[in-house]
Every structure is written in C-alpha cells, then in structure tokens.
Amino acid sequence: MSNATNGHARKTLVEEGTQFKGSLSSECPVEVKGRIDGDLTAPALAVSTTGAVHGKVKVGALNSQGELAGEFDADVVQLSGTVKDNTVIRAKSLEVKLSPDKGKLQVIFGECELEVGSEQPARAKESEKPERPRESERPKGASVPPASVPPAAETNGSSSPS
Predict the structure, then answer these.
(1) Is-contact 20 45, C-beta < 8 A?
(2) Average pLDDT, rounded, for the chain
(3) How many domains is the chain built from?
(4) I need a surface site. Which of 26, 45, 104, 146 has the fewest CB within 10 A?
C-alpha cells in the first residue's frame, strides 16, 4: 500500500515459483511470473516468459509472453508467447509479435479460436449498407445482388466458352 502513496502504480503480482488456483479478481493490473489456474478478472494482465495462465480470463488489456490456455476476453491483446490447444481468444484488437532467437519464425494455431473485432457483427453489416447502394449496382430485374455473387462466378460469366 505504500507504493500507492509514493506515486508508484499498484499491481497484483504472482511471483515465479508461486501457483494460484481458484478465482482472482483485482482492481489493479495483474502480473503473472508464476502460474494461475482458474478465473481471473482485472483491468489488465501481463504474463511474463516464465508465467502461465490457464482458465477463464476477462481483462481490458492482455500482454502475454508466457503460456495461455482457456478462454480469454480482452479489448486489446498482445501475444508473443505460447497459446495452447483448445484456447479461445476474443479481442477488439490483436497483435502478435514474433522474434526468434535463431532461424525462421513459426506460428502454429492448433485447435484454438480467435475472434477479433467488434462484439456486435450485425452493426458492422448495417454500416456497410450506405457505402454500397444496391439500387445503383444492381441491374433492373437481377435476382441476385452483386455483393453476393462469388468472384469465381463473375469471372466464369465474363469469359467465353471454349
């Protein structure tokens, strides 16, 4: 608590060599150098290279250089660590940073699910409507709007049969 009075930012720290199991809720950012197994809610989560978080996580910002497994909901996600199989990551913004010690970079997405963007995809579709007015793009009497015709069909339709 003296950190807050000295002008230093407060944080919840799970130190290397520490393993926490259960539900953790914090009003300040959480830094994990050890391991958390369970539910976590905080404004921000930072996982170091020695850290691991397995469970259901809801944070504003996630910066992970360590290991993630489970279900993660965040506004901003920065990944440069490991994401285990069967992991779900939902984010408004996702950044993956890769820097190999030697050789080539390799990214493996096993059985995981990434959802990036708006929480309400229906609104995104609604906002597209004014940008492409259907009346001016569609010829009179056409039964299929141009936006739903696959590009391959357009190409086949314009080429002459052999």
Answers:
(1) no
(2) 75
(3) 1
(4) 104
